[in-house]
């Protein structure tokens, strides 16, 4: 069978094609995926790559996998074609694990409008998004109209997953990219958390201890913990929505408040009402 060559790559020499492929692989860390993988799930299904609205070619050495190039150029058209070509669960689209949280959410929305089913598979850096024409089997994070089954967690695991997810969202940065479904999968696996994620969970636990001591009228013990680890000043109290500086100010703990106020950025911290600790004092 003659190898299919996408229209945009016809006329290229082998060297030029290989250089372009290396360029695609090198661009995989951008927010927009340079290519997605289309996998056929049934032996009785065949697709016509030429009918795809984007460049599409069969992966070398495979009979059931194709590469679709630059899906963000015509995302809605791609999903409409995919829905027709791979109806009734005949195939799935697999996106690179480097897809950002924003792009993953965007594709969830596009799939939802196209009445397709989405699921995130795997954990950590290997977690990736899939889109199918029927609910996918197994656990994972569903969305975009997906009816895929959620992971079955015990009540303790649900509480733990929520705590870890909240800690990741509070920490921000790269941890903000972690989805609730990914963390549920980590908890369900029973395996130790990645070291960086365990570190922020430990920080959240110590920070909650500081807030609990302040609310219980034990500022001296709280100050000892803060002096030992000033980063705990950035752990927000889940109940009141305030940071330790807010709580210290509300209760009149001058020594704690002065220490926290001396730390960079603490005077600009805002509680759940979007108020700084100083603004809260002025209103009292």
UniProtKB/TrEMBL annotation:
Keyword flag Oxidoreductase: no
A GO molecular-function descriptor: DNA binding
Chain ranges of the R3H domain: 83-131
Domain of life: Eukaryota
Pfam families: R3H
InterPro entries: R3H_dom, R3H_dom_sf
Keywords: DNA-binding
Region ranges (Disordered): 1-33
The protein, known as: DNA-binding SMUBP-2
Organism: Chlorella sorokiniana
Taxonomic path: Eukaryota, Viridiplantae, Chlorophyta, core chlorophytes, Trebouxiophyceae
């Amino acid at each position: 069978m003659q190898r299919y060559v996408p229209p945009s790559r016809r006329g290229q020499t082998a060297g030029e094609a290989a250089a372009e492929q290396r360029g695609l692989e090198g661009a995989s860390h951008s927010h927009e995926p340079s290519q997605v993988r289309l996998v056929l799930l049934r032996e009785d299904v065949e697709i016509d790559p030429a009918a795809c609205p984007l460049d599409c070619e069969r992966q070398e050495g495979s009979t059931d996998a194709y590469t679709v190039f630059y899906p963000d150029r015509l995302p809605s058209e791609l999903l409409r074609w995919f829905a027709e070509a791979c109806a009734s669960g005949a195939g799935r689209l697999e996106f690179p694990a480097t897809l950002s949280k924003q792009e993953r959410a965007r594709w969830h929305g596009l799939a939802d409008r196209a009445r397709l089913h989405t699921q995130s598979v795997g954990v950590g850096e290997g977690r990736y998004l899939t889109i199918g024409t029927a609910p996918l089997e197994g656990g994972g994070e569903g969305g975009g109209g997906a009816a895929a089954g959620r992971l079955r967690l015990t009540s303790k695991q649900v509480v733990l997953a929520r705590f870890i997810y909240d800690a990741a969202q509070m920490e921000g940065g790269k941890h903000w990219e972690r989805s609730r479904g990914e963390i549920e999968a980590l908890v369900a696996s029973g395996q130790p958390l990645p070291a960086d994620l365990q570190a922020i969970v430990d920080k959240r636990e110590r920070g909650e201890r500081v807030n609990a001591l302040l609310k219980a009228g034990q500022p001296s013990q709280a100050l000892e913990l803060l002096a030992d680890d000033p980063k705990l000043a950035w752990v927000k109290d889940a109940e009141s929505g305030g940071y330790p500086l807010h709580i210290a100010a509300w209760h009149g703990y001058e020594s704690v408040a002065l220490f926290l106020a001396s730390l960079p950025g603490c005077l600009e911290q805002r509680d759940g009402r979007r108020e700084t600790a100083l603004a809260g004092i002025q209103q009292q």
